[in-house]
Write a structure and sequence with these properties.
CATH class of the largest domain: Alpha Beta
Low-confidence stretches: none
Oligomer: single chain
Number of strands: 5
Structural class: alpha+beta
Largest sheet: 3 strands, antiparallel
Helix content: 10-25%
Radius of gyration: 26 Å
CATH architecture of the largest domain: 2-Layer Sandwich
Mean pLDDT: 83
Distance between the termini: 47 Å
Strand content: 5-15%
C-alpha cells in the first residue's frame, strides 16, 4: 500500500487575513437586506409576510394549511367507534421511546366487563411533552394503532406539570378512530 503525501496549498496574504471572506459575507448579507426592503424576499408571499423577510406573522397566519403530509406533531391516544380504549398496555411505546417520555402503568380488565376484548388496559398513561422529541417511533411500534401523532404543533403550558399529558388528556386530543386504520397500506 503506497503512502501518498498531500501538500497543503500555500495561503496568500489575503487568505491569511480572512479579509476577502469577511467582505464576501458582508456583501451577501447586504444583498439580502436590499431584496428584503424592496419586498422581493423569497417566500414572503407564501407566509403573508410584511415584506421585510420571510417571518410568518404567527397569530394571524398559521402553518395549518402548509404542513407537509409527513409532519409529526403531538402524540395522542385514540378510541374505537364504541368508545373502547385501543391501548392494551403492551408497553412497546414506552420501551421504544428514546427520551423515555412515556410512562404506562398497566391495569387489568374485569372479565365481566362487556367491553373486555383484551386482558389489560392502561391504568395510567402519561407522555411528558417536555421530553418528547416527536420522533414517531411510538406510533410505528403500536400493534393496536392506539397512538397517533397529530398535526398539532402549538402545545403550550405555563408549568412543567401542565406539559405532562395524562390518559384523559391524551384521549381528548386523539378522539375517535372509526374502523381499522392500516397506517402503512400505502407502503405495502
Amino acid at each position: 500500500m503506497a503512502i501518498i503525501k498531500i501538500k497543503r496549498p500555500k495561503l496568500t496574504l489575503a487568505d491569511k487575513l480572512y479579509l476577502p471572506a469577511v467582505i464576501k459575507g458582508l456583501f451577501i448579507t447586504f444583498k439580502h437586506a436590499i431584496r428584503a426592503i424592496r419586498g422581493k424576499t423569497h417566500g414572503a408571499e407564501q407566509f403573508n409576510s410584511s415584506g421585510l423577510g420571510v417571518t410568518m406573522q404567527y397569530p394571524e397566519t398559521k402553518w395549518d394549511d402548509q404542513l407537509p403530509d409527513y409532519y409529526r406533531g403531538v402524540p395522542a391516544l385514540v378510541t374505537d367507534e364504541q368508545e373502547r380504549e385501543r391501548c392494551v398496555s403492551c408497553q412497546l411505546c414506552e420501551f421504544i421511546c428514546p427520551p423515555k417520555a412515556i410512562t404506562i402503568i398497566p391495569g387489568e380488565i374485569e372479565s365481566d366487563d362487556p367491553w373486555a376484548k383484551v386482558e389489560k388496559r392502561p391504568k395510567e398513561f402519561e407522555i411528558d411533552m417536555t421530553r418528547c422529541i416527536y420522533c414517531g417511533m411510538c406510533e410505528e411500534v403500536c400493534p393496536e394503532q392506539a397512538i397517533y401523532l397529530r398535526d398539532d404543533y402549538a402545545m403550550t403550558g405555563l408549568s412543567r406539570a401542565e406539559m405532562v399529558n395524562d390518559k384523559k388528556r391524551l384521549y381528548e386530543i386523539g378522539g375517535v378512530r372509526t374502523g381499522l386504520v392500516n397506517k402503512w397500506n400505502e407502503i405495502k
